[in-house]
Specification:
There is one protein chain. By secondary structure, the chain is mainly beta. The protein contains 1 helix and 11 strands. Strands 2, 4, 5, 6, 9, 10 and 11 form a 7-stranded mixed β-sheet that branches. Strands 1-3-8-7 form a 4-stranded antiparallel β-sheet, with no helix packed on it. The chain starts with a strand and ends with a strand.
Length: 123
């Protein structure tokens, strides 16, 4: 069992920046690829970014490429999402996720989810 707890979401103006954190506990954090998803009101949950077990490989949705950066610190069992140049359409609940592989993240074959953190971007 892995527990994931997100933090860092808040209200921010368009063009601003936020860093989300996801702290993991329980089973070995390094055994999992990690990812971020988001869900806006009335929409399906969508993939945002993923990162491999060592952090060497990352992958992004086209909508956030060049603006968001995913990273991880295995010593702290934490994954981060640095979000820059935020837009109102980035408003959503952001979820952290763990899967056995990065492909599992992208195909939504998720083993563990966090509870989500709200990000609101005002225009």
């Amino acid at each position: 069992q892995v527990q994931l707890v997100e933090s860092g979401g808040r209200l921010v103006q368009a063009g601003g920046s936020l860093r989300l954190s996801c702290a993991g506990s329980g089973r070995t954090f390094v055994d999992y690829a990690m990812g971020w998803f988001r869900q806006a009101p009335g929409k399906e949950r969508e993939f945002v970014a993923d990162i491999s077990w060592t952090g060497r490989t990352t992958y992004y949705a086209d909508s956030v490429k060049g603006r968001f950066t995913i990273s991880r610190d295995n010593a702290k069992a934490t994954v981060y999402l640095q979000m820059n140049s935020l837009k109102p359409e980035d408003t959503a609940v952001y979820y952290c996720a763990a899967a056995p592989s990065p492909v599992g993240i992208r195909t939504h074959a998720i083993d563990y989810w966090g509870q989500g953190t709200q990000v609101t971007v005002s225009s």
